[in-house]
Write a structure and sequence with these properties.
This protein is mainly α. It has 18 helices and two strands. The chain has a two-stranded antiparallel sheet. The protein is elongated.
Length: 440
C-alpha cells in the first residue's frame, strides 16, 4: 500500500458514509421545503458548472497560491455553506436537517460535474470529500441548535446570531484546513520514506500554509455563504440571485487573472529551457531546482506569493549563462569562482527584469551568488539547491553522490550556504526528495 493511502481512504470513507446516511435518512423521511432544496441544489450545480476547469494537478499545475488550486468552485462552496447555515427564510423558520443538507449538496454537486466528466476534466475527489465533510460539520454545529429553538432563545436573531454564524464559519474553515493539510501530507508521502526510514512531510508547515490560504478565496467563500444565509432569512429565496451574481462576476475576473498567471508561468518555464536547448545546463536542471526549492521553501514556512517568487527565480536562475562565450562544464556554476558566479547572476537578473515578472524574482536571481548573510531567504534556497543539483550531476550520481554533496554544503556554511537551508534540504531529501503535487 502506498504511504498515506490510509489517510486518504479514511477521508473518502467518512465522506462516503456521511453521503449514504444523508440519502438514506432523506429518502426515509422525505424532503422538507422542496423549493429551498431545489433552489440551493440548483445554485450548487451552477457553481460546479462554472468551476475553474481542470483541477490543479491535471496538465499544467496551478502556480502556488493560485485561487483555483484552493477552491475550484467557489460559488458552489458558498451555496453549500449557505444551505448549511440557513435558519429562516423570509422570516419563517426552516426545518431541514443535516442529512438533507448533505443530500442536496451531493446531488447538486454531481449534477454540476457531469459536463466536466464528459469533457474529461472531472473534479478532484479530494475537494468533493472535503466539501461533504465540512458542510456536514457546519450543519451539525448550527442546525440542531436552531431547529430545537435553543439558539434563538439564547442569542435571539440580532448581532449575537450573526456572531454565532461567524464562529461556526471559523471552525468550519479550520476543519477544512486540517483536512486539506492531511490530504496534502498523505499525497506527498514519498514511497522511499518508509523504505529508507525517512521522516514524513511535517504536518505543521502544511497546516500553516492552508490557514494562510484562508485569507484569500477561502474567506470570500465563507463570507458569501454567511451573507447568503442571512439574506434568505430576511428576503427569501430571491436573495440567492442577488448575492450569487456578484460572486459569479468576481469568479470570472479571477479566471482571467489566473489565465494570465498560467500563461506567464508557461512563458517563464519555456524561457528557462533556453539554457538547456543551448547546451549551457543539463536537461531538466531548472525544473529540478524549481521543484526542490519549492519543497525546501515549504519546509521553511514560505507560502503563497513567496513560493511563486521562489519558483520563478529557481526556473530562471541560470539564464545569465546565455551571455557566456564558452559554456560552464555541465552548467555547474556552483563550482566557479565567486566573482564569476556574481557576474552571471547579475546578467541573469538583468534578463529577468525584461520579462515582466515581479521585480522580486530578479532580485533573487541577482543575489543568489552573494554571501548568504546578505541574501533574502528565497535567494539562499535557490543558491543551496542549485549547488546541490550541480554537485550531484554527471560526476557524482547515486546516493553516495547525494551524501557527499550534502557534506560539501555543510562544510560551506561559513559563507556560501545558510545552515538552516542546508538542514531543511537534508530533511526534504530524507523523505525521498520531491513528491508529486496532490490532485485537485
Amino acid at each position: 500500500m502506498r504511504p498515506g493511502a490510509g489517510t486518504v481512504g479514511a477521508v473518502y470513507g467518512a465522506a462516503a458514509l456521511l453521503t449514504v446516511a444523508g440519502f438514506a435518512v432523506t429518502l426515509w423521511q422525505g424532503i422538507d421545503e422542496p423549493a429551498h432544496a431545489l433552489a440551493f441544489g440548483t445554485l450548487i450545480a451552477l457553481g460546479e458548472l462554472v468551476r475553474w476547469g481542470a483541477p490543479a494537478g491535471a496538465g499544467t499545475p496551478a502556480a502556488p497560491g493560485e485561487p483555483q488550486s484552493r477552491e475550484p468552485a467557489p460559488l458552489a462552496a458558498a451555496g453549500a455553506l449557505a444551505y448549511a447555515l440557513l435558519g429562516a427564510s423570509a422570516g419563517a423558520s426552516t426545518t431541514h436537517g443535516v442529512p438533507q443538507i448533505v443530500t442536496v449538496v451531493v446531488a447538486g454537486g454531481l449534477a454540476g460535474v457531469v459536463p466536466h466528466v464528459a469533457a474529461g476534466r472531472g473534479p478532484g475527489l479530494d475537494h468533493l470529500a472535503r466539501r461533504i465533510l465540512t458542510v456536514g460539520f457546519a450543519g451539525l454545529c448550527f442546525q440542531p441548535l436552531y431547529n430545537t429553538g435553543e439558539l434563538t432563545r439564547r442569542l435571539g436573531e440580532g448581532p449575537l446570531h450573526a456572531l454565532f454564524l461567524l464562529l461556526v464559519l471559523v471552525l468550519t474553515a479550520l476543519c477544512d484546513a486540517v483536512l486539506a493539510a492531511l490530504m496534502h501530507r498523505a499525497r506527498t508521502v514519498p514511497r522511499t520514506a518508509t523504505r529508507t526510514g525517512g521522516t514524513p512531510v511535517p504536518f505543521g508547515p502544511l497546516l500553516r500554509e492552508e490557514v494562510r490560504a484562508l485569507l484569500g478565496i477561502g474567506s470570500a467563500v465563507c463570507a458569501t455563504g454567511a451573507v447568503m444565509a442571512l439574506g434568505v432569512a430576511v428576503a427569501g429565496l430571491w436573495a440567492l440571485p442577488v448575492f450569487c451574481v456578484p460572486l459569479l462576476l468576481t469568479q470570472m475576473s479571477f479566471r482571467r487573472y489566473a489565465a494570465v498567471r498560467t500563461t506567464n508561468r508557461q512563458t517563464i518555464a519555456s524561457l528557462a529551457r533556453a539554457t538547456e536547448i543551448a547546451g549551457y545546463t543539463p536537461p531538466g536542471h531548472a525544473r529540478r531546482v524549481a521543484a526542490l526549492s519549492g519543497a525546501v521553501g515549504r519546509e521553511l514556512g514560505l507560502s503563497g506569493a513567496d513560493l511563486t517568487v521562489l519558483e520563478y527565480a529557481a526556473l530562471m536562475h541560470d539564464i545569465g549563462q546565455l551571455s557566456l562565450v564558452d559554456p560552464v562544464p555541465e552548467g555547474a556554476t556552483a563550482l566557479l569562482a565567486p566573482e564569476e558566479q556574481r557576474r552571471i547572476a547579475l546578467l541573469g537578473g538583468a534578463v529577468v527584469r525584461q520579462t515582466g515578472v515581479p521585480a522580486a524574482v530578479a532580485v533573487v536571481v541577482e543575489r543568489q551568488a552573494d554571501p548568504y548573510r546578505d541574501q533574502p531567504l528565497p535567494a539562499r534556497i535557490v543558491r543551496t539547491v542549485n549547488a546541490y543539483d550541480d554537485l550531484t550531476g554527471a560526476a557524482a550520481t547515486g546516493p553516495l553522490g547525494a551524501l557527499k554533496a550534502l557534506e560539501r554544503l555543510r562544510l560551506d556554511t561559513a559563507r556560501d550556504h545558510h545552515p538552516e537551508v542546508v538542514e531543511s534540504l537534508a530533511r526534504v531529501l530524507a523523505r525521498g526528495g520531491v513528491a508529486p503535487a496532490p490532485p485537485g
